[in-house]
Amino acid sequence: xxxxxxxxxxxxxxxxxxxxxxxxxxxxxxxxxxxxxxxxxxxxxxxxxxxxxxxxxxxxxxxxxxxxxxxxxxxxxxxxxxxxxxxxxxxxxxxxxxxxxxxxxxxxxxxxxxxxxxxxxxxxxxxxxxxxxxxxxxxxxxxxxxxxxxxxxxxxxxxxxxxxxxxxxxxxxxxxxxxx
Length: 180
What we know:
The chain is an alpha+beta fold. The chain has one domain (3-174). Helix content is 18%, strand content 34%. The strands form four sheets. The protein has a five-stranded mixed β-sheet. A four-stranded antiparallel β-sheet has the order 11-12-1-13. Strand 9 and strand 10 form a beta hairpin. The two termini are 22 Å apart. The relative contact order is 0.24. The mean pLDDT is 92.
C-alpha cells in the first residue's frame, strides 16, 4: 500500500471555489474557509453555491476536485465514493447551477491513529519538508489529514485505485508527501 498527497488538476480542469462573501451571507461566518483545523459543520450547514472558473485549463468541470482542505465531489463521484469515505469525515451538500455537489470534510487525523512515524517530521521554516506514515495503521483509512499540515489531504492506494478505475477526473496523486 502506498500513501499519496492529493492535488487539484489545475491544468486540465476548471477550478472550484467558494465566494467568501456569499459564504458569509448564507452562513453568517466564513469559518470553514479560514480555519484549516478539522471540525464538523454538519449540524449548522447551509448548502452553498459553488463557483467554478477557468484559469489556464480547459473549460471542463471535474467530477472530483480539491479545494483547500476539502474534496469537492460532483453527484456522480459522491455516489461512487460515499460508502468508502463516510466513516472518515462528513459530506456537506452544495450546488453549482442546479447540479448537486458535495464537500467532503476529512475529519480523520493521522496523529489520532498514531500513524505518523516518530522522528519523520521535518520542516524548513513553515513548510513541511519530511513526513512518513505507518501504513499498517492507515490500512482501512482511504483519506486523512495530519496536524503537521491540516490543509494537505492524503490518501491510500485504495482510494486512488477507485478514483482511477471509476474514471473520476480532476485530481492528481503524488508520492511526495511534503510541501515541495
